[in-house]
Amino acid sequence: MAAPEELPTWRSVLVVVAHPDDESFGLGAVIDALVSRGASVTVLCLTHGEASTLHGAAADLATVREAELRTAAAALGCLATVLRDHSDGGLGEVPASVLVDDVVAVARRSESEALLVFDPSGVTGHPDHVAASRAAIRAADGLGLPVLAWTLPADVATRLNDEHGGAFSGHRPEEVDLVLHVDRTRQLVAVRAHASQAVPSSVLWRRLELLGGLEHLRWIDPTG
User: Fold this and answer.
1) Cβ-based neighbours of 13, under 8 Å, separated by 6 or more
2) What is the pLDDT of residues 110-127, one digit of tens each?
3) pTM (whole model) above 0.90
4) How far is CA 87 from the centre of its chain?
5) Residue 116 to residues 7, 59, 140: CA-CA distances in angstroms?
6) For strand 147-151 and strand 214-220, is the pairing parallel, antiparallel, or unpaired?
7) DSSP one-letter code for 171
8) φ and ψ at 205, to 5 degrees?
């Protein structure tokens, strides 16, 4: 049986991601749902995404992607964005305590009541996603805050891997805590703000197609 829709009503939520566009392609519909329920959402992005292999826009990628992030976050109704300058592709090499301190500082400043992250598996197979989520979960543990993690259904992850040779990971229905019916209208506006990344060949468009109007979330136990 599918998990029910039961998104908490928080006043303030901190979203922690590794790269500009993670907040839109990955978490955009969930962010929109939170904002629609009255939450003030702050996005903390730990890199400028300068190592991306997608180049739909010709310019200095770090500068371009910073501007894209701010435009996309505004389209989603986020209150603020905070961008750090850690190396794209190298988050796993940054001392964990540095990343944790980044998250703690922004969570305190934004008076966040919860954190929204990628699943600790990283979802897409990118090691930066794993490092960002691990840091956020450690920070939440220290702050005593709940962590909600975005994941994929296992069958969707398998299909994406079969079709595109990716490294997506997902969870079985019994491992999913919340299944949200979402409206992707604002998410798609935000995604298109990432012109350097929202190229037709991106597998992320296929993911949105396969998920339809549903997103899947898990509660993360920081001590688990």
Assistant:
1) 34, 39, 40, 41, 42, 112, 113, 114, 115, 116
2) 999 999 999 999 999 999
3) yes
4) 18
5) 12, 31, 10
6) antiparallel
7) B
8) -65, -40
| Token couple for 178 | 């919340």
Q: What percentage of the chain reaches a pLDDT higher than 90?
A: 82
Closest CA to 191 of 58, 31, 14, 41: 31
Tokens of 54: 């997608």
Phi, psi torsion values for 138, nearest 5 degrees: -65, -40
Q: Token pair 């979330």 is at which residue?
A: 217
How far is the C-alpha of 112 from the C-alpha of 12, rounded, in Å? 5
Q: Which amino acid is at 218?
A: R
**Cα-atom radius of gyration of the chain, to the nearest Å?**
16
Token couple for 135: 């840091």
Cα distance between residue 7 and residue 34, in whole Å = 8
The candidate with the shortest Cα–Cα distance to 65, out of 18, 30, 1, is: 18
